[in-house]
């Protein structure tokens, strides 16, 4: 399945961003600078340009003169974040798989907003994940998520609603069977992959999943 790749303006530890034929790359505001640094030409640029230096804003405006269909300048007073605007563009183009980079770190409220964006995608039949070097964040809703036996590092999960029911973990250091996870107690933190094929299931409700591996 082809991906909509959104590159934001959060903290970014240098890492490869694989772009395959058919993928659609959106630079969300300051994400344009990361695209430039990684020599990735975005298919679309969107944002209010409040996190960009003047010379980069001029570059984007010049780019818009040549390709007006590939740039959307947003007002600074708006309801959608730049990331949410990018997500709406990807959904409108038919994408159901989203990879979001440079979406964590910096201001905590921006990270929380981007986690909410993952739930927005999930509730609309799409899947998204926040990616940075050594960490992946995703949402599971009434489904089973499977991981290969090669997966390493830590696994944590948190209820995104009041209760997540029928939560089962298999193939990890701390298994769980048909449990109820609530949003007021972090029982799901710091599990570990152990070299087995693993899976997590939630029968009712929604979980936030965080995979961390800083070994490399």
Beta-strand content = 35-45%
Radius of gyration: 18 Å
Low-confidence stretches: none
Question: Which structural category do the helix and sheet elements fall into?
Answer: alpha/beta
Q: Overall mean pLDDT score?
A: 94
Write down how many β-strands occur, each being a DSSP E stretch of 2 or more residues: 12
Profile the largest sheet.
12 strands, mixed
What's the N-to-C terminus distance?
A: 27 Å
Supply the number of helical segments.
4
Using the alpha-carbon principal axes, give the shape: elongated
Helix content estimate:
10-25%
What string gives the helices and strands in order?
EEHEHEHEHEEEEEEE
Task: Please explain how this structure is put together.
It is built from 4 helices and 12 strands, in the order ββαβαβαβαβββββββ. Strands 1, 2, 3, 4, 5, 6, 7, 8, 9, 10, 11 and 12 form a 12-stranded mixed beta sheet that branches. The chain has helices spanning 31-38, 54-66, 82-92, 108-122, and strands at 4-7, 24-28, 44-47, 71-73, 97-101, 127-132, 135-147, 154-159, 163-170, 176-182, 191-192, 198-212. It has 216 residues and is α/β, with parallel strands linked by helices. The mean pLDDT is 94.
